[in-house]
Amino acid sequence: MEIIELFFKTILFRPYVFVFLAAFLFAAIMLIGWPRTWRFWLMSWATAFVCEYSSTRTGIPFGWYHYNGSTVGQELYFSDVPFMDSISFSFLLYAAYCVALCLLLPTRPTSTATRPMFTPLHLDVNVRTSWSVLFVTAFLFAFIDMVIDPVALRGDRWFLGKIYYYPDPGFHFGVPFANYVGWAVVGLISLALYFPIERRLPALSLPPSVTLRLLLGVGLYYGVLAFNLSVTFWIGESFMGMSGLLMHLPVIVLLIVRIVRPHTASLPG
């Protein structure tokens, strides 16, 4: 009963996390279905929890950091790791996966008479479980944390609270580079576990173009990014916010070029 009570307290204490989690479940089920979604969630959450548990004791793979236990009794913890923290890895990894797929999936040819607004993308199983998708996803996964972690480290200045610290602060707004390496490691391990299962599951029944369904996950990625950048500017960290915005701008431009199709007016013959 105490665990159930703490779980509901966690939802009330961190509602934004569970909004993002609900968005992940909806977007993932729409694209890959429930059998794949729960496997993706379980593998990524378990990998993240094991890595966080390890890092707070051995420094591997994120480097040394410690949760200070300031929210014990207010939210659910597994050992010394807050539940909401390790669960966040799952929806962030899926969001990064969707961005990578938008950049790398093959396109479907279309007639010039019916030119869609967005480039039609085909969810080819060989591409979506390829090495290129694996590494691009891991990069994008760590890349968004370069906005999330600096502002989370300043949680005492907003509603997150001061829940953790680095004994040896790093050069990137106090975050050690090893932390970002750890995020990439979690992404690589999670997808390396998930991809073989993905290939063995029954084939998906999807429309020829999955672009709109993929954009739900892309929207989650940039929704989380916008949320964290907004908080960054709100607490007065303008330089940190501009740095994060400018870092992500090239990927945004690449996505727009890849996904949005320009509509050219036909000339009278």
Question: Could you describe the 3D structure shown?
Answer:
There is one protein chain. The chain has 269 residues and is mostly helical. It has one domain. 65% of the residues lie in helices and 3% in strands. The chain is built from 8 helices and 4 strands. The chain has a two-stranded antiparallel ribbon with strand order 1-4. A two-stranded antiparallel sheet has the order 2-3. A hairpin with a 2-residue loop joins β2 and β3. The longest helix is centred in the first third of the chain and has 44 residues.
Secondary structure elements and their pairing?
Blueprint: H1 2-13, H2 15-58, E1 66-67, E2 77-78, E3 81-82, H3 83-104, H4 125-128, H5 131-152, E4 164-165, H6 177-200, H7 211-234, H8 238-259
Antiparallel strand pairs: 1-4, 2-3
Helix pairs in contact: 2-3, 2-6, 2-7, 3-5, 3-7, 5-6, 5-7, 5-8, 7-8
